[in-house]
From TrEMBL:
It comes from the Bacteria. This is Thiamine transporter family protein. The keyword Metal-binding does not apply. One of its GO terms (molecular function) is thiamine transmembrane transporter activity. The chain crosses the membrane at residues 55-73, 79-99, 119-143, 163-183. Pfam families: Thia_YuaJ. GO terms for cellular component: plasma membrane. It comes from Latilactobacillus curvatus JCM 1096 = DSM 20019. Keywords: Membrane, Transmembrane, Transmembrane helix.
Length: 200
């Protein structure tokens, strides 16, 4: 049991580091402030493999690393509360996608591909929506002064973060389905993979 916990923790740390690395890929859409977050993808996959709590821990590590490596250096932290919301809570709640861990793993074992793909899109929605809802709140409360003159801060934040949510959601959903088709064992712990293989 202790060995299993250590394995999960190491796996989560590696996934968090991978998520940070993906964020260095250019991800701004056009001239707008809309961004696609590639780091969401490995965190969602890990959450569906290990569950919501390990996923949230990995997301928290991702957020803290992003804060240290990018946030503090490029002026993305305005104050303690904004930094807490956007670099700890927002990244951590991506792991909420893991609430669908058991239904998705059961669906993979039962070879119900359409149901599995539907659940994967739901997981992509939960993870990305949770993250960008936090950014939406922070955008309206803390970044409102950056809105175009005469534009409501809440509307500005909704436009920017809503667009980022949609772009990230679509990309995450597509990649999750591709992974299902090519490497379904990504969503299953080792003991489940062996069980599925023995049934074939």
């Amino acid at each position: 049991m202790q060995h299993q916990r250590l394995l999960i923790q190491i796996e989560g740390a590696i996934i968090a580091a991978f998520a940070v690395a993906l964020e260095y890929i250019p991800h701004t859409v056009g001239p707008s402030a809309i961004e696609v977050s590639f780091g969401i993808i490995p965190i969602v996959i890990y959450s569906l493999r290990r569950g919501a709590i390990p996923g949230m821990v990995s997301g928290l590590i991702w957020g803290l690393l992003d804060l240290i490596l990018r946030g503090l250096g490029n002026g993305s932290v305005l104050n303690v509360w904004q930094g807490l919301l956007e670099f700890t809570i927002a990244f951590m709640v991506v792991g909420l996608a893991g609430i669908l861990q058991r239904p998705i793993q059961a669906s993979i074992q039962n070879h119900t591909k359409v149901k599995t793909m539907t659940l994967l899109w739901m997981a992509a929605f939960f993870g990305t929506f949770a993250k960008y809802f936090c950014h939406f709140l922070a955008g309206a409360v803390y970044w409102g002064s950056y809105a175009p003159k005469g534009m409501n801060a809440w509307l500005y934040s909704l436009t920017v973060n809503g667009g980022s949510f949609i772009a990230s959601f679509i990309l995450t959903g597509i990649v999750l389905c591709i992974c299902l088709a090519m490497v379904p064992k990504l969503y299953l712990p080792k003991d489940m993979v062996l069980h599925v293989q023995s049934e074939k």
